[in-house]
Each structure stands twice: as structure tokens, then as C-alpha cells.
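Sequence only, no structure available. Ideas?
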Amino acid sequence: GTLYNYFPDRAGIFAALFAARRAAMAPRLAAAAAAAAALPFAARVRAFAAALMTVFDEQRGFIRLLLATDPVAISAKARTTGLVPQLEQHFEDIMRAGAAKKLFPATEVALQARMLLGALRGVAVWRVGTRPPPARARPRGGGGPPRGGGGPGGG
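Reply:
I predicted one. C-alpha cells follow.
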């Protein structure tokens, strides 16, 4: 038979696909958030962002499909029950820790969370569009600029 023997329409196919992918990705993101929870703020941000990018890299084909999908074909329910609300919550939890350390006002927690999530979305879209996937940056020990190479005094 055809797919339409199992799904009522195109939107039903996408809803089932998104639900299956969300079910696979959500526990990994929750585990990454929990694993990073005890880290200092900056390390926590880096660890969760790296885990998120790893999950996105592993799901490049799905994300490419998601970006190419007609948004009208995706129901409002699929959009509001997807990964975005979960990611917003994880980033808000992280940003609350930053606000508790007086790194920024508590009134900016939601804004800071969405700015970071937006930036990471942009990177994910860029990475999906590059073939082969870009090499992962190596961690920098002290968080400063890479040493050596070009630039004044770089040695």
C-alpha cells in the first residue's frame, strides 16, 4: 500500500515523522542538560550547546527536511509540542543560573535564552547547508582566543 493507507494526509506523515524524531532527540537533550547542570555557568552553556549541536549534526537529513517543509503543512500542535519549547526551557534554566551569579539581570533570562537558542539555530541551519559537515572546533583551554598563527603577537 501507500503511505496514505497509514496517514490521512501529508500533514499526518510530517506529524508522525516529527513525533518520532522528537521522541528520539528529547531524552538526549534532557540528559545533556542534566549532565551539565552542576557545571559553572560558562562551562554549562558550552556543554549544553555542544550537545545540542551534536544532536543536530546527527539529524542533518531531518533538519534539512524540516527547513524545506511548507510551514502550513505542519500543524500548530506539532510546532508547540516540538523541541523548541523544551530547548527554551533548558536554556532558561541555564540563564537563571547566570542571573543568580549576577551576570545579567533576572528580567533578561527569557531574552538571553532565546538569543542563544536563535544563534545556535542559525549555526545549525548553516551546518545543514554545508557538505561535508564542518569540522568541530577543538575546545580552547582557558576560553581565550586560539594561540599561535596569524595576527600581531600570535605566537
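The radius of gyration is 19 Å.
Hope that gets you unstuck.
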